[in-house]
Amino acid sequence: MSIVVQTVLVRTVRGAAEGRDFQENNLANPKGAHLTDGTFLAELESVADFFTAIQQRLGGRWSNRESLHLSSPGWQALGVIHHDMNHRGLTLTEPEKLSIYDRIAAINWSRTNREWVDHAKLGIWGAPKGSQVEQVIILGAGRNNTQAIIDFVRPVPVFRRNWTHRRSRNKLSQQAVDDFGLSMRLCCRRGDA
To answer: pLDDT tier at 109 (50, 70, 90 boundaries)?
Structure first.
């Protein structure tokens, strides 16, 4: 697994453990955080299993640096999808979880997938400067791009059934946010460092 910028790792971990509302907020105080000293190992295993399942299903596509799942908004969106699956009270069965992993892996994450523009509304379609290959050109704020990817992935049928479920109001403690080792361990496969 590639190493990404510390800020992206922290936001990915925040999204995975505490949800979208706390992904970019360093100042909010948690009410019953999901990631604590007492839950660390279980959360570590859950996040590692999530990313490992997606990596295995993507195969060689996992390491394609031009794919959007390895972009900053892609990492952060996947973190939020982990939160959706594990902390929103959906009580997913194992077959439902496997179906979500398969659906995520079935997405064409390449920048040349026109659905990023037509359906996800992620950016504009065109050829970047110096290239003749048309692809999505991401514009705007990072938060909007992350949300566009989340909204593109979320239509998995199992999410639709409970999508009005209450929004999480928990967040990661500042101590955990400041601990880069925590975010590194949460976002990397077991055994990778």
So the answer is: very high
Q: What angle do CA 124, 138, 104 make, to 5 degrees?
A: 100
The residue assigned the tokens 């929004």 is: 167
Residue 22 is encoded by which pair of tokens?
Answer: 């706390």
Q: CA of 44: how far to CAs of 5, 136, 167, in Å?
A: 19, 33, 22
Judge whether 78 and 69 are in contact, CB under 8 Å: yes
String of DSSP letters for the chain: -----HHHHHHHHHHHHH-GGGSS-SSPPPSS-S--TTTHHHHHHHHHHHHHHHHHHHGGGGG-TTBGGGSHHHHHHHHHHHHHHHHSS----HHHHHHHHHHHHHS--BTT-THHHHTS--EEEEPPTT--S-EEEE-S-HHHHHHHHHHHHTTSHHHHTTTTSPPP-----HHHHH-HHHHHHHHS-TT--
Rounded distance between C-alpha atoms, residue 129 and residue 134, angstroms:
10
pLDDT digits (tens, 9 = 90+) for 31-50: 778 888 899 999 999 999 99
Q: What integer is the mean pLDDT of 72-80?
A: 94
Asked if 77 contacts 20 with a C-beta cutoff of 8 angstroms, the reply is no
Across the range 117-128, mean pLDDT stands at: 89
Q: Rounded to an integer, what distance in angstroms lies between the CA atom of residue 104 and that of residue 69? A: 10
**186 neighbors 13 (Cβ within 8 angstroms):** yes
